[in-house]
Design a protein that fits this description.
With 506 residues, the protein is mainly beta. It contains no helices and 41 strands. Strand 27 (319-324) and strand 28 (329-333) form a beta hairpin.
């Protein structure tokens, strides 16, 4: 089939110095059918040959990040490519001067993967050449002798997911190619794939948004960054940042931020984000001053005064915290259980805490990971979430968690806390009412216990379930499952970790 170029479209800056040109014109008015993505070109920018046989081009106004060109047939011209459609190879491609898309760690912004980068060396090596070999897109990584744990993305082997987040009764995972998939409770459209499913939730992952570099989940809403911020789910307190309150939005809706955001953290009914300048912005429910001030619902991102330039930000059920460049922590919002680490509800420094690099906020407690990998926690301890010795109900002073090895990752559920060691062990403490610590429902754990997950690189907690990203990129979850939050295709509680279905091949 003849080669055709498509140019003349508007420019789009994706970040990291990559600029694209969206192509809508040229080549005559008739429909053009493609067979491969190399036939979809526009002023040096590559388009994608979709499964429909028509070219699409990058467009940040579409949840999938791709819009059909003017020469697509069957009424598709100018329409957004559905998130679930992807490219003709089974994955959605995003063109750029490096040929890849960078995904970042949700905690510290470090690069997790650069899809399509020529410098990738991961994956199985051919026994004769030592060169990584890979099968068809999304297939398991094999070299003809054996298979590696991972999936083929743009010709290289990578973990099939980068990280997973759990919250309340739903979960989402970021694929290594930047696609976001979600599952679980969907009463308010928080799964994000369309009209809510209120009967048993969504028990298996569904595609939501492409090209993400960051995401987080609130109680009944979610937000992600894919060139621009997107939010979806419940909006009764303006937590979607759309400048108004409303019932809910069941698909991602783009925000208009005051500056580019690179971190987003969704709380119970509010959201905070970090601008690239280091300024912290928050919006949503503000009854306890978790956004700023008191009592006034804020429906669009507003800068939080008296918070230092931040390198990280996190949100709890009703409070917020940020880490500054010196590793000190400032918190604001509800303070009734000591979760701010200082008296009052205004932004203030947590007292008695060493220099830290990661935050993990729960509903009524806060934790942080210091530079030595030691976890510190403060706030409510009713379910053992501080792992404090004796019968401590709460503590405004940070307490060092004893009996756990040095950690490289830390996260809080509503009332429990989990961490991952460098060797991949998962240690947890706190509420175990629904078996979120493994072994079925039981007593709260007031000292850290080892949970029998596969070796992990990341852990996350919801209200009554816990999930990990394993070293091979597969996602495993344990605990309550009445809303499908474990993603195994059932609504059956799991006493032992079960694998989320459909995220990885095989």
């Amino acid at each position: 089939m003849g080669r055709c170029t498509w140019g003349g479209g508007p420019g789009l800056v994706l970040g990291g110095g990559l600029s694209l040109v969206l192509g809508w014109g040229g080549c005559g008015a008739s429909a053009f059918e493609c067979e491969q993505s190399s036939q979809c070109l526009g002023d040096g920018a590559e388009g994608v040959c979709q499964q429909s046989g028509y070219c699409s081009f990058p467009d940040e106004g579409c949840p999938s990040g791709q819009r059909y060109g003017d020469h697509a047939g069957n009424g598709l011209a100018g329409e957004c490519v559905p998130v679930s459609e992807g490219s003709s190879g089974g994955t959605t491609e995003v063109a750029g001067s490096t040929g890849g898309v960078t995904t970042h760690d949700p905690i510290d912004g470090t690069t997790l993967a650069i899809e399509g980068s020529s410098s990738e060396t991961v994956g199985p090596a051919d026994s004769s050449t030592g060169v990584p070999s890979c099968g068809a897109a999304t297939e398991a990584c094999c070299d003809g002798v054996g298979c590696d744990e991972g999936t083929c993305i743009d010709g290289v082997c990578q973990p099939c997911t980068a990280w997973v987040e759990a919250e309340e009764e739903f979960s989402c995972a970021a694929h290594s190619d930047g696609q976001l998939s979600c599952w679980g409770s969907d009463d308010d459209g928080q799964v994000g794939d369309g009209p809510p499913n209120v009967f048993g939730g969504v028990p298996t992952p569904v595609a939501v948004l492409n090209g993400i570099t960051e995401f987080d989940l609130g109680a009944f809403h979610a937000c992600a960054i894919a060139s621009t911020p997107w939010c979806w789910g419940r909006n009764d307190y303006g937590q979607l940042g759309l400048g108004m309150t409303s019932g809910s939005e069941s698909v991602p809706v783009a925000l208009d931020p005051p500056e580019p955001f690179d971190i987003v953290a969704a709380g119970g009914f509010h959201v905070c984000a970090r601008g690239t300048s280091g300024q912290v912005y928050c919006w949503g429910r503000n009854n306890d001053g978790q956004v700023q001030g008191f009592g006034i619902v804020i429906t669009s991102p507003e800068p939080v005064p008296n918070v230092p330039t931040a390198v990280a930000v996190d949100t709890g059920g009703f409070h917020s915290c940020a880490i500054d460049g010196g590793g000190e922590v400032t918190c604001w919002g509800r303070s009734g259980d000591g979760q701010l680490g200082h008296p009052g509800s205004w932004p203030g420094l947590v007292q008695g805490l060493p220099e830290v690099e990661q935050l993990a906020l729960g509903d009524y407690h806060s934790c942080a990971l210091d530079l030595e990998g030691q976890p510190w926690c403060w706030g409510r301890n009713g379910e053992g979430q501080l792992a404090a010795p004796g019968f401590v109900d709460e503590s405004i002073a940070p307490l060092l968690v004893q009996g756990v090895p040095p950690l490289v990752d830390l996260d809080s559920g509503d009332d429990h806390v989990c961490g991952v060691t460098d060797s991949g062990e998962v240690w947890c403490w706190g509420s175990n009412q629904d078996g979120q610590l493994g072994g079925g429902p039981g007593n709260d754990q007031r000292v850290p216990i080892l949970v029998p997950f596969p070796p992990a690189v990341h852990v996350t907690g919801g209200r009554s379930h816990t999930c990990v990203t394993a070293t091979d990129g597969r996602v495993w979850c344990v605990g309550r499952n009445d809303r499908g939050q474990l993603g195994d295709g059932t609504n059956l509680e799991a006493d032992d970790p079960v694998e989320v279905t459909g995220l990885c091949p095989g």
